[in-house]
Amino acid sequence: MDIRKQLVSYSRNIARRELVLGSSGNISARSGTAMVIKASGTCMETARNADFLTVEIATLRYRHKTLRPSCELRLHAACYRSRPDIACVIHTHPLYATVLASCSIKPVICAPEFMIASGGDVAVIPYICPGTPQLAQRVGSAVRNHPIIYLKNHGLLTVGATIAEAFMRTLIAEQMAKMQVISLMIGKKINSIGRHRKQQLLAATLRR
């Protein structure tokens, strides 16, 4: 399927699941030396093929007379520059993950799927003004070892070797955040499955 068609499909799925509101959030996919990214002001729930622009990763140059790329253009480019295996970047504003990040609560690896999706740890970045080179630099550094990143007072960022993988990481991160928030609401501390079990879990997964 064409990259733009995939991005439109996943954008609408993200909106249906209320992981963004209005024109917030952004999504992109690598295409050779460029990336295809959502245009600024575009709502994911009504996105069309024409709402995605092609931008060179190295120079951030693009050609379009009327549309501008997302204000988080630098953020996406920093991820692609940091790791050649990244094929998709998704930035959303999911409720529970944003609550945890904004309250400075470290995400707990509380389920096997979260361990596998995160690689055993989640990065939490302090608030930095969206759209700035400073945020892009910080995320570009963190993404080298963390496919899931919580942004304080801002939202969530996930990456993947495919659009599907990045999207699944978004869903898992939000579901685990929801579990953690609910545990705090009922006055309980959710248990971690322990980072020492990471290799055991990964080995069991590979044997399937």
Topology:
Elements: H1 3-16, E1 26-31, E2 34-38, E3 52-56, H2 73-82, E4 88-92, H3 95-102, H4 112-118, E5 123-125, H5 133-142, E6 148-151, E7 155-160, H6 163-185, H7 198-206
Helix pairs in contact: 2-5, 3-6, 4-6
Short descriptors:
L-fuculose-1-phosphate Aldolase; 39% helix; 208 residues
Q: What overall geometry do the principal axes of the alpha carbons give? A: globular
Strand order of the largest sheet: 3-2-1-4-7-6-5
Order of helices and strands: HEEEHEHHEHEEHH
- Count of helix runs: 7
Radius of gyration: 17 Å
Number of structural units classed as domains: 1
Distance between the termini: 28 Å
Question: Overview of this structure, please?
Answer:
By secondary structure, the protein is an alpha+beta fold. It has one domain: L-fuculose-1-phosphate Aldolase (3-Layer(aba) Sandwich). 39% of the residues lie in helices and 16% in strands. The chain has helices at 3-16, 73-82, 95-102, 112-118, 133-142, 163-185, 198-206; strands at residues 26-31, 34-38, 52-56, 88-92, 123-125, 148-151, 155-160. Strands 3-2-1-4-7-6-5 form a 7-stranded mixed sheet, sandwiched between helices. Helix 2 runs parallel beside helix 5. It is globular and about 55 Å long.
